[in-house]
Amino acid sequence: MDIQHLVDRLEDLIDEGRHLFGTKFTMVDEERALEIIDQMRISIPEEIEKAARTIQLKDRVLAEANEEAARIVQQARQHSEDLIDDQEMVKQAKVRAEYVIEQAKIEAEKITREADEYVLVQLSQLEQQFAHSLDEIRNGIQIMQYEEPAAVELEADQQSASFQPDDVAREPINFERPAQAPVAGRI
Q1: What is the pLDDT of residue 25?
Q2: What residues of the chain score a pLDDT lower than 70?
Q3: Do 36 and 24 form a contact (C-beta atoms < 8 A)?
Q4: Cα dihedral 44, 49, 52, 54 sign
């Protein structure tokens, strides 16, 4: 039986008893009172055992809840640390990327500057070579212009031709205007 029910029955028994006038005493049926008390003695260990089981269950549930809470807190802490690590890695990656980009710009500017200097040096050397070649060509032309009349006169005397080299106007070659067709008799 439930202990609470037995306590209620004992209380009813006392309420049903006779009150002695002018005192706090009540007369109750002793046999019924002892029977309820015996039943209480039998019920109490069951109730205590039930209460102990309830306390154990409560303790187990609390322990599991505490373990779960600790696990959740640990997971949250780990997750936050991971996020912080991720954010730190992202920051470091951004800093590294900015550094690499800056170094690449500096290197590109250096390479461009060196390439420009190289091209300028090569073009200057080419200009000097062309100027030297042009001087040689002009010198050759001048030499040919002064030596050619004597060679032509010898040839003319030998062939007795009516063509006289002095009749041909001799002009130096101008490299700044387009090439002209050779004059008759000149190669």
Answers
A1: 87
A2: 1, 148-187
A3: no
A4: negative
Task: Report the pLDDT value the prediction gives residue 88, as an integer from 0 to 100.
Answer: 85
How crowded is residue 6: how many other Cβ atoms within 10 Å of its Cβ?
21
Residue 117 structure tokens: 């200097």
How much is the pLDDT for 51? 82
Integer angstrom CA distances of residue 31 from 13, 129, 187: 11, 142, 162
pLDDT value at residue 72: 92
Residue 165 to residue 154: CA distance in whole angstroms:
11
Cα 181 to its chain centre, rounded Å, is 70
**Is 173 in a helix, a strand, or coil?**
coil
Q: Is the distance from CB of 168 to CB of 183 less than 8 angstroms?
A: yes
Coil, strand or helix: which one is 160? coil
How, if at all, do strands 26-27 and 18-19 pair? antiparallel
